[in-house]
Specification:
This protein has 4 helices and no strands. By secondary structure, it is mainly α. The longest helix has 20 residues.
Length: 105
């Protein structure tokens, strides 16, 4: 498993390294088992960010509505969003910081 310290070895997204950056973060998210937040919408909350940006992945069915699942999704989304934003150069961080869903980022 990739240690959190290894995450800091990822070169920040700067506009020239997207494919490598994305693949490295995706591997990390898979190990943490939070990668599902990149392709799943939380039901009944909607996804207001998605109106501003068309997601690059096909729409998937929403998660079940139980409270435990919603709580887990929100926690995992915050974690993924944090990793994404903290591994971007300053101009990209400023561009994406207002998006609340990792899927949209």
């Amino acid at each position: 498993m990739m240690a959190a310290a290894e995450l800091y070895k990822i070169e920040p997204l700067d506009g020239t390294n997207y494919k490598r950056w994305y693949q490295k973060l995706l591997l990390y998210f898979e190990q943490l088992e939070i990668d599902y937040v990149l392709i799943t919408d939380l039901p009944d909350e909607g996804n207001p960010d998605s109106e501003a940006v068309t997601p690059p992945v096909p729409k998937t069915p929403p998660l079940p509505l139980d409270e435990a699942t919603k709580k887990k999704f929100k926690k995992d989304n915050k974690l993924a969003r944090s990793y994404l934003l903290n591994n971007m150069s300053k101009p990209f961080f400023d561009l994406f910081v207002n998006f609340k869903f990792a899927k949209v980022i």
